[in-house]
Write a structure and sequence with these properties.
Elements lengths: L2 H23 L8 H4 L6 H6 L3 H29 L2
Length: about 80
């Protein structure tokens, strides 16, 4: 393995762990039995929360997923072509 392949493998593994961690930190979209019973949680906090932490977690998960895909393709090409 060349130095490029080793570096890409390490970056790929780190980004994969970051994706899993970001995914596990995020809250689910289900609201439990409150949706069936007709309960609504339209408070100011619930509306503003989506613009703060949850939105940032979703954005970072998407960014990490794109980075993971690009690094994986480059790693595949590096191994296949022997860079």
């Amino acid at each position: 393995m060349s130095a490029l392949q080793i570096i890409l493998t390490i970056v790929d593994a780190i980004v994969a762990v970051a994706i899993v961690a970001l995914f596990l930190i995020q809250e689910g979209n289900d609201r439990g039995m409150g949706v069936v019973a007709g309960a609504s949680s339209d408070s100011y906090y619930s509306k503003a929360k989506g613009r703060s932490l949850e939105e940032q977690l979703k954005r970072w998960t998407s960014i990490c997923a794109v980075i993971f895909a690009v690094v994986s393709v480059v790693l595949y090409l590096a191994v296949a072509r022997g860079w």
